[in-house]
Structures are given as C-alpha cells and as structure tokens.
Amino acid sequence: MTTLYFYLLVGVLSVAFALRAPGLVRHWRDPLVRSVSLLLPLGAAVFFFAAPPTISQVNALTGVPNFSVPLVYGIVTAASAALVNLTITWRGGPEDRRRAATRWCVGIYGAVIATQFTLFALGDASEERLRDFDTYYATTPYVREMVVLCVLSYGLANLVLARLCWRWSREVPGLLRSGLLLIVTGSVLSLGYVACKLLAIGARWAGQDWDGVSTTVAPTVSSLASLLQCVGLALPSASQGVTSLWNRWSRYRRLRPLWVTMRAVTPYELVRIPWGSSLGKRQLRRTCDIRDGLRLIAPRLGRRAQEEEQPDALPGALKPNAARHIAMVAAAFEALRAAQADRAACSLEDMLSGDDEQLLRLSDVLRVMAVPDQTPGRESGWPSPFEGTFAGPFEGPSELVGPLPDTPPPHPGHTDG
C-alpha cells in the first residue's frame, strides 16, 4: 500500500468526522453519539501514524528507534476499545449495567495499552524497521508478545462488533440495515487482517519467510475494512440528515400557495430576510407571515366563501382586492374542515397557535383549488394566486404578487358550460 493511500484515508476519515462534529457538539451527552464520533479521529490517527514517513519522523523526534510501533499499537488498541464500547452502547439495557460494562472496557484496554509499552521497553528493538517490524522482531522476546497482544485485542473487538451488527441487521430495515451490513463486512475483513498478521508471525516462528502477507496484504485489507466500517457508521446518520432536509424543504414549498395568498391580503410590507438565510429561518418567516394574514381575516373564515365576495364587507386594514383571496381561503378552510370531520377538527385556533400541520393541509387544499381545470371545454373559476410570481427554489418574503383578474370568482360549485 503506497504512502499516498495512507494519507488519503486520513483525509476521508477526517472529513467524515468534520461532518459529524456539529452533531457531536449538540449531543455530547448522548453516549451513542460519543462512541460513533470518537471512532473516526482514532481511525484517522491510526493511518496517519502508521504511514512510513510519519513513523520515521516520530522516531527521529523521540530519539527512540521504533517508538512509533507502540504508539500506533496503542492507538489501534484504543480504537478497539471504542468499537467494544460502541457495541455496549448499541446493545442498550439498564443504565447502571451499561456504565459498568463501559468502565470495564476502558480499564481492560487501558491495561493492554500500558502492557504494550512495558513490553516494548523490556524488549530489544534497536534497529528501525518502517514496514516489517512485526515479522522482523517476531522471535524477539517481549516484542513478539507485544505484537501478538495488539493483534488479538484488535481481532476480539471486531469479532464482537461483527456479531452484534449482524444480529441487529436482521431486525431493522432501510439504510440502517445497509450501514450495519457494511460494518459487518468491514469487521470480517479486519479479522482477515488479523489472520494475515498471525500467519506471517507464525511463519517466522517456523523458520519461513512470509513477510509479504504482513507488509502488503494485511495493510490493504485493513484499509478497506476501516473504510467500510466508517461508511457504515456514517450512512444511517447521513441518510437521516438528508431525509430531514428534504422534509423541511418539502414543508417550506407546500406553504407557498397559502403564503402568496396572504401576501395579497395583508396591506403592509412583509419583513425581508437576507438571501443567504437558512431554510429554517425562511420557513419560520413564511409561517409567521401566514399567521399574521390569517389573524386579519379570522372573523371571515367561519362564514361561507360567497359572503366574502363583497368588497364593502372587508375590514379597512386589508388590501382593496383582498375579497377574492379571502373567498379562496374561506372555501379551502371549509373544504379542509369537511375532509377532516371524521379524523380531527380543523381549528383556526390551532393554526394561529402553532399547528404547522394544519397550515400545510390548508395550503395543499388551496393549491388544488387554484390549479386551472385542464378538461377540454372547461375552465376553473378560481383565479390563481401565483400569477406573476417568481417560483424559484429559494424565494423569500420579498417576492411580488402579480396582477390578479378583475372578475370575482363564482360560487365554488359553479362551472361554466
């Protein structure tokens, strides 16, 4: 595996951690978020310090030949502890038992790291080896025990993770199941890495030279395994983020028909927001504009739409041509109430007090009523409130409502022809 590949994996894992960093800051108290997020920087650290140029620099800075080896092994063991801790957190159960298991995990793997450094100090590894340390010192007392201890602890962690994720993948659907299967695949490949290392070390014990299995095959398998595991860990959260963004965008677009109609009713200039505002701020502004308009016409929504067609019946605070739009909103409100009669009452108080779902449903009904009838020989009697408006993807409250037809709408049940 080339040096560039080491640093490429460092970059991928670092980007993945950067994408998760905001969620880690917001939900630091969530043990599952902490467990998943800490794996990414540990994985990046493993490949960074395992790259031959970094190994050489660390050895030169410390003045100790091969000091990078226990350092990399310590990071690998810490990552293994994070994997085991992740399985404990995913498994759930009583809080006391989970915390006790986590403490045991940290204590045992912490002792393993301390033992690795102790064995390195007791052994004789005075000749620097950048790529074949494991096999070159496979017969050196204390050093061989350090290598085997690290490889076995890493393999045990991946075995536990693969077993748990495989059982869980049979109980969940969708992208979460795909992510778990990727983790299982990566964990199985990690066991292949362990097998390659032990095979090469065992060959040295038997007087054979299978160093290529350890220096070439094992790092390639390990890099692919780590990549699959990280993608599997990131896939569920990334899919949740995309789904959440799509839902918020969909809700924002669904509110547009009602929002444009309220713009034609309210007499004052609505608040302008900067073009670079977030989607959440835009939706909040749109919802506030709608509720402001509904409050102005609230006394009219309990009556029939045709009662609102007379301009002299409008309050002076509304725009002169607001009658047609109020008629449309009133008819849509009555249609929504009729449609929800068997499920839940459509209350204007709910719309004004914060029930966004009712606003979305009212806007959907208004959009359907405003679409021209395309049946040959017939035309809808409802004027479109979107005529002359900009329908771009990020339109803000500064949009202009275009001219409307001069003829008032007929009775909702009336059709021409």
Automatic annotation (TrEMBL):
Pro residues composition-biased segments: 405-417
Chain ranges passing through the membrane: 6-25, 32-51, 71-90, 102-122, 142-166, 178-203
Keywords: Membrane, Transmembrane, Transmembrane helix
Chain positions covered by the region annotation Disordered: 373-417
Domain DUF6545: 246-366
NCBIfam families assigned: MAB_1171c_fam (NF042915)
The name this protein goes by in its record: DUF6545 domain-containing protein
Organism: Streptomyces lavendulae subsp. lavendulae
